[in-house]
Fold:
Amino acid sequence: EDQVTQSPEALRLQEGESSSLNCSYTVSGLRGLFWYRQDPGKGPEFLFTLYSAGEEKEKERLKATLTKKESFLHITAPKPEDSATYLCAVTDSWGKLQFGAGTQVVVTP
Amino acid sequence: KAGVTQTPRYLIKTRGQQVTLSCSPISGHRSVSWYQQTPGQGLQFLFEYFSETQRNKGNFPGRFSGRQFSNSRSEMNVSTLELGDSALYLCASSFATLGLSTGELFFGEGSRLTVL
Structure:
């Protein structure tokens, strides 16, 4: 059965303190791995799509990487506005989208 | 351009009742997918509609159903509500079907359902 596991569940960072979030997955026929950001009371907001091992994507202070079994979301020198829940999701060749439970990130000034 | 619109935003129902939620996708998007979000289970895929056809379905009982109209607007229905159906229901739209999508789904703000 396909599984997506995110760790840690929660992360508290000081402003400027870089860190990484992990998303490990088991899925047959991976089509793509996606990262989303969700603010309280809002729907998720798309960040990145990664398709193959070795691929990297960057956006401002965020950088996503992909290996054959996991993906990392690196947050470099975070700011309080980076506080959110970060969700990882995978889709298989059947088109089913499966989300991880998310990592709640709090960045304090 | 206008984003994904979900209505109603909040609703309260009692056990045994049914509920219909609506989702208007971004203009030009033909795929609408639905998700249930709860603190315990996270975000779970319900189903996807593309050009009025259900393309995929998650592991939910038959009480959960949906449809899509010719203008791509979609509705989902939950019959015989249970306490455990209390959740945030999100819909997302994209141009391509999920299996071919770049993953860039555009989510609405959700409909928060409380079942008493």
User: Anything to note?
Assistant: The radius of gyration of chain B is 13 Å. Residues 34 and 91 of chain B are 4 Å apart (CA to CA).
